Fold this protein.
Amino acid sequence: MFFTQNRVSDEDRRALVELLNQEPADTTDLLTQTKYAHTGT
């Protein structure tokens, strides 16, 4: 982990990073499913 000036523990920071990294993947998956359902292909 990079050094920061905040007081969030490394364990909490790792959990936050994992959660925030999952968000773009979920959004992309939803977009793909929506596009697939809309086109019917």
Q: What stands out?
A: The radius of gyration is 17 Å.
